[in-house]
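To fix ideas, we reproduce below one chain and its tokenised fold.
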Amino acid sequence: MTLHLDDVTLTYPDGDGRLTALDSVSLKVPAGTLTAVVGPSGSGKSSLLAVAATLVSPDRGRVVVDGTDTAGLDRAGKAALRRERIGIVFQQPNLLPSLTVTEQLEVMAHLSGRRTKAVRDRALALLDGVGLADLAARRPHQLSGGQRQRVNIARALMNDPAVLLVDEPTSALDHERGAAVLDLLVTLTRERGTATVLVTHDRAHLERMDRTVSVQDGRLSEPTVERS
């Protein structure tokens, strides 16, 4: 299970010309590893995640998710790939206020037409894995910010994705809760064998990542990160 971006270029209309968001970007993320993507606002980090998630098609280059070249997929095919093989952890959890913690996860399987006891069992197992087994019946307003982000992560793992894409998961958390969420992501990546990409502004824990890449003006480079 891997994610492979091969010579990807993405541009957007900009007046009479085109603005380059990604410039010949190549990135390979093996299964069971976590790659952090850092860079200033507007550098191309969000564009990289959008391309990797098949939400945006590049002008040039290939995006290969778990062996599937996404260039050969139509819109429905890409939507199915996202449901089945890509987990996305958004910056804000956006949990549904009327649903319990368990139901937040179950709805992901229901979108694929699965409504079995196995779905409930998997949801409960994932909640146990992120340390929320005791809160399975609570609703979002009864959770802390860190707990809601843990639900967000568990929900993204519900359909056993090959690729996990994480967008600024600690931006609304204090240092301690943010560190706990990053620790959890590292652990889950190892245990579940996902190819994980984490976009972050938090450079305090980069030594925990398997690799760190920097985006600047749409180009990718690999900064030196001291490991403890």
Remarks:
- Residues 175-192 form the longest helix (18 residues).
- The domain at 3-221 is CATH 3.40.50.300 (Rossmann fold).
- DSSP finds six helices and ten strands in the chain.
